[in-house]
């Protein structure tokens, strides 16, 4: 059994956000959920300690790429793994995300919640220093 992790989730779809949060919590993890990029960035400026951030790309106001850009530019989320969790599966989107040095890219439509959990834990633990 994997050690518990602290996971931050960003998605404007509350149904999906709650579904993923429940999956991670049921596996013994601590979860913080955010429905907007502004809300997430405000929390990250408080310098919380967490293991991974899963974020959607298509969002109102600030999209996932703008959030990623701010995280990298402002040095937020230091030490945490950043994983895109999106239905945007086109190569240009994946390549653009890679420019922000994301640690993983999961396409929602092709991964059930238990697979998202497994992939996230694998990314956290395999990439641990």
CATH topology: Rossmann fold
Cα-to-Cα separation, first versus last residue: 19 Å
Helix content: 40-55%
What is the tally of beta strands? 5
| The CATH class | Alpha Beta
Major β-sheet strand ordering: 2-1-3-4-5
Strand and helix order: EHEHEHEHEH
At the fourth level of CATH, the homologous superfamily is: Response regulator
List unreliable stretches of 5+ residues: none
Q: Tally the helices: what do you get?
A: 5
- Give the overall form: globular
Strand content: 15-25%
- Average per-residue pLDDT, rounded, comes to 93
Mind telling me which CATH architecture this is?
A: 3-Layer(aba) Sandwich
User: Measured on Cα atoms, how large is the radius of gyration?
Assistant: 13 Å
Verbal overview:
With 129 residues, this protein is an alpha/beta fold. It has a single domain (6-126), classed as Rossmann fold (3-Layer(aba) Sandwich), CATH 3.40.50. The chain contains five helices and five strands. A five-stranded parallel beta sheet has the order 2-1-3-4-5. The longest helix has 14 residues, at 113-126.
